[in-house]
Design brief:
- The protein has helices at about 5-15, 20-45, 50-60, 75-80, 85-95, 100-110, 115-130, 155-165, 170-185, 190-210, 220-230, 235-255, 265-285; strands at about 135-140, 145-150.
- By secondary structure, it is mainly alpha-helical.
- α11 (about 220-230) packs antiparallel against α12.
Length: about 300
């Protein structure tokens, strides 16, 4: 099917003035993913009691043992049972909270179902998402892992989020925290933890690249010298390090030290900080591919770092 299927569907609805609200998107999305899960994992869920038990545990739902038919036996009986009989089908069908539906999908990729099934599931779900016109993405990342995350502007998703996820593979501690932040984005009440994950992810990346153990707010001198050594202009260095300083000040004031549990952090603010962190990281990771050009000549105005 065409890679531009999402755009073609959007244009069709516009051309015919068809209203396609969020409620309808989610309803049709559920129908599509249920069909996909049935096609790829339906028989396995009906026949593998341990797999079902593990899945229910992952999503935080109770499990009641029922009659199962092992794969390879009583095939004629197995064909009389359908995926609609599975608690997995019923949970997704009856779920009204969109974030829970995303959790149910994400947990499928955490099951021990084999690389082939995961790849098939990934390809089908990617199409389901596009056809449903939802602002989410599914991405294949390292070692057969797959991640669902919220989508924003296409350019930012491709150049900031996707690239950072790909390039952070060589920095596992930072990668783990950045991925964790993305997973928490649509979970109400996780805003503080999400932003703290972003801060620590950036801090750990800087420590590894700059080969030191300094906190984020104390990296200005080392960061400036490193960037100058990579041939970055002084103006760009000053802008970058000043933005990092402002970012660090925000984190210290609102998240790290003075966070108040009853303080609401707006979604737009959280999204801004996700993309800002990703932009910081993408630029920094790009510089690691550049040869060392200068070793002397840059000095920071900040002399208070430790």
């Amino acid at each position: 099917m065409s890679k531009n299927i999402k755009m073609r569907v959007q244009n069709f609805y516009r051309r015919w003035n068809i209203e396609y609200d969020e409620q309808r998107k989610v309803l049709e999305f559920k129908k599509r993913i249920l069909s996909t899960i049935d096609e790829i994992l339906g028989k396995i869920f009906l026949s593998d009691k341990d797999l079902l038990r593990n899945y229910m545990k992952l999503i935080g739902e109770s499990y009641v043992d029922t009659e199962f038919i092992p794969i390879g036996s009583a095939i004629s009986v197995l064909t009389t049972r359908k995926f609609e009989d599975s608690p997995v089908y019923k949970l997704i069908l009856n779920e009204t909270e969109f974030n829970r539906i995303i959790l149910y999908i994400q947990c499928l990729f955490w099951l021990d179902i084999g690389t082939n099934q995961k790849e098939k599931l990934y390809e089908k779900l990617k199409l389901d998402i596009d056809l449903s016109l939802l602002d989410i993405k599914i991405k294949k990342i390292k070692d057969g892992e797959y991640l669902l995350y919220p989508a924003g502007a296409k350019l930012l998703d491709e150049k900031v989020i996707n690239d950072v996820l790909d390039w952070l593979v060589d920095y596992p501690e930072s990668y783990k925290l950045f991925e964790s932040a993305l997973r928490k984005y649509n979970t109400h009440g996780e805003e503080r933890n999400l932003l703290d994950d972003l801060r620590l992810s950036l801090e750990l990346l800087l420590r590894q690249i700059l080969n030191n153990k300094k906190s984020l707010e104390n990296q200005k001198n080392d960061l400036g010298k490193y960037l100058y050594g990579k041939g970055i202009s002084k103006e760009a260095i000053n802008m970058y390090t000043q933005l990092i300083s402002s970012y660090s000040a925000y984190q210290n004031e609102h998240i790290k030290h003075n966070y108040k549990p009853d303080t609401e952090i707006k979604k737009s603010e959280v999204e801004f900080l996700i993309y800002l962190t990703g932009t910081f990281m993408r630029f920094l990771l790009e510089t690691t591919r550049e040869p060392q050009k200068n070793n002397k000549g840059f000095s920071s105005n900040n002399s208070k770092e430790k």
